[in-house]
Amino acid sequence: ALVDVDQVLEGLNKVQREAVTSEAEVLQILAPPGSGKTRTLTSRVAWMLANGMNPSNIIVATFTNKASKEMKERISKMIGGGLENRLIIGTFHSIATRYLRKYGHLIGLPGAFGIADTSDSSAIITRIIKKNKYSTMDGNDAGNIKSRISNLKSKMQSVDEYIATQKKSNHNDEFSKIYTQYEKELKNSNLLDFDDLLLRCLDLLRAHPLCVSNIEAVLIDEFQDTNLVQFDLMCLFASRRDRITIVGDPDQSIYGFRSAEIGNLKAMQEVYPHTIVVNLEENYRSSAAILTCSLEVIQQDKARPAKGITPTHELGISPVLRELPSSDAEARWIAQEVLRLRALTGNLFTFDDIAILVRSGSLAREIETQMTQKRIPYRLLAGIRFFERAEVKTVLDYLRVVFDPNNNEALLRILNTPRRGLGDKAFRELSDAAGKKDTSIWNIVQKAARGDIKVVGISNAGITGLSKFVKVIRETQNAFQSEQSQDSEVIGKIIQTLLEKIDYKIYVGEKLQGEFEDRWQHVEEFIAQAVDFCGNVMTGFDEADLPDTEAEGNPVEESALITALGKFLATAALASVKEGPEAAGSGDGSGVLTISTIHNAKGLEWPIVFIPGCYNGSIPHSRADDHDEERRLLYVAMTRAQVLLYLSYPSKLWDRKSGSTRRLMATRGPDITLEKILSFSNIVSRECPTREMVQATINAAGLLILEDRVESDDPISQIGGYSKGWDNYGSQPQNSSGRGFQRSSSGGFSTYSS
Ligand code: ATP
Ligand code: MG
């Protein structure tokens, strides 16, 4: 294809261009937030394509699925021709999944493996704990056990290795037993958990490097948060040509608690001694005021090497630090402020422009309630995840069983949902019988339904229920397999038929009481998503098949629908960790507000950002041992904002444990102090910005973010001129044409000189 390379380089600064076009084999682009790392990485991919590299020979690992989608859209704009759809692009987990699906058989993995999501993992662990009557004291709850297992796996310690080290220290604890049984249960159910996806892919590529013999370049975003397994995967992906580009920022490393290795940056330079390091120093994202505040936070890390960051935007509006009497009041205040901002700018801001970034999911729920009450459309990037909603999860589990009935976890959840007259005893008997015969529960269920075996504890009604269940699953499987149509619409029809057969609507109405309309809408949304996704797969628009390599191809022949279903289920399982679907919005162009955890907001940006819960105990978290990581977390959150940043905290919190009210203070650890930032009173304000201030910002030439939206007949632009609002904040907007930052007379910004 003839591609205009100028288009790829357009709008980049000199250093960015050099990085994009660099001939270096191994390149590290290390730079602060908003300096265009992701943009540079994206352009480098486009550059490679423009220079004729085959997209199927390029691996790009992004941090979220959303990020890879955005990257593809950008590349498509620069290059076009649909090349972006043939890239091997996605999160490490999704890329690993694709390799395992195609080549897993080379290491004895069944092609139709399922992915154990968070609820599968904790269901398995909970069952093991119950069955063996292990004590749940000493942090032995399912969540803790799962993270311990996950941390061991991220450090590549297998069960056997772990037990060996434990034996040496003569320490035979329950944890080793749970870990062992957990692995066994996963295997019996033909499931891989998230860590396994990476580990098995590592096994695969070590044993069969030919699987990636075609790969010419490997590019990785957010490298500072990769773990040891991902590092090794990177090296293996690249093994044929050793051409690697990574971008990252040590100041934004926030996954240490999940075994991310900041040491990977150094390790990479050791493995590839000819690594070239590039630094970008200009911030294109945030107003100078927001950038200054954020730097105040990160610079409290005394061990951090000094770095240059230059703002390219005007000072802008002071970030707001606000104390509210309770977290309920805090959520209400945010909702009000969102509406006020829209109103005072004549709806210049859409809800798409706004994000609320929270430390934890529980805070998100209070905010959700307020958004619902004020009718503000929102999407969750975290919190109660879409695929984990009870009414959606059940449908998903039915499809997982249809895809692979040996998936015991999914099967156990739907066997009696809707009710089929099976009690706890029946469940125990069924899984015991499966365990004894060393076969799947599905096999026992089929036999019991036929009356071939007698399972104690199951009534006649239960037997009837089971045989109906078996029939429905089989019929649905047949529908998928025999369908010749290439039209993904039929998937929707098959799912609908399945739901009718099990009277799902009645079940949702009766059993999952309340909010029937909402719940049923989720089910319909889910079906629509399945149809959409499978449609994209079948037309090769999404997740195009991996190219054939010198390794042996995939022997599994499946119908196109089944293949598409498998990919959809994998995507749903992986999505549930991080992202929900796009919310529908109100359809009037006002957009959808985003609620996300800080962790999931990494790499993203919004004109307006709220960070509630900035109090001691939340950030830094009371259970966090690494205060440096807590500080970086706040830094990551603050640097998402482009124009307006709001930090808030409740002054009191009801403590469920002690049953009393706790007084709270703004974020203030030994090393993070929001109050300190306040002393720069001309940067942080206790008050929300006035209409005039917002107006002045929009008018200021330095803040171009919103400029193209302001039309002459827009009410806001008719206010005209700067207002007195600025005077209260100690600083006039600087020269209206320059991009450079000017030092304020009070000296508050001296931190800027690099
Ligand atoms: P983070 O560390 O948060 O992931 P980043 O370094 O990846 O940030 P990007 O997201 O790539 O930064 O860029 C931040 C913003 O700056 C984006 O809106 C991007 O389009 C813009 N940008 C990047 N480079 C330039 C440039 N040379 N001129 C104008 N805008 C730019
Ligand atoms: Mg980025």
TrEMBL record:
Gene Ontology molecular function, alphabetical: 3'-5' DNA helicase activity; ATP binding; DNA binding; hydrolase activity
EC number per UniProt: 5.6.2.4
Residues bound to ATP: A31, P32, P33, G34, S35, G36, K37, T38
BP term (GO), one: recombinational repair
Taxonomic superkingdom: Eukaryota
GO CC, alphabetical: nucleus
Keyword Nucleotide-binding: yes
Keywords: ATP-binding, DNA-binding, Helicase, Hydrolase, Isomerase, Nucleotide-binding
Residue spans crossing the bilayer: none
Location of the UvrD-like helicase C-terminal domain: 288-603
Annotated segments matching region Disordered: 722-744
Reactions it catalyzes: ATP + H2O = ADP + phosphate + H(+); Couples ATP hydrolysis with the unwinding of duplex DNA by translocating in the 3'-5' direction
Ranges for domain UvrD-like helicase ATP-binding: 10-287
Family: Belongs to the helicase family. UvrD subfamily.
Protein name (record): DNA 3'-5' helicase
Species of provenance: Arthrobotrys conoides
Taxonomic lineage from the root: Eukaryota, Fungi, Dikarya, Ascomycota, Pezizomycotina
